[in-house]
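FAQ: What does the model actually see?

It sees only this:
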Amino acid sequence: MARGHQKFQSQQRNLKKQEELRKQKGSDQKAAAQKALTHKCTVCMVSD
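And it is asked to produce this:
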């Protein structure tokens, strides 16, 4: 196992990696939500 300074560096690298993954997931979720968002106007769907 890593000790001291090496352990600290390893934790910092892992933290940065986790933050990058969260950012990527966040944007993917937003894109997926926009793609899945379908709004049908009840007025427009009524045939004359």
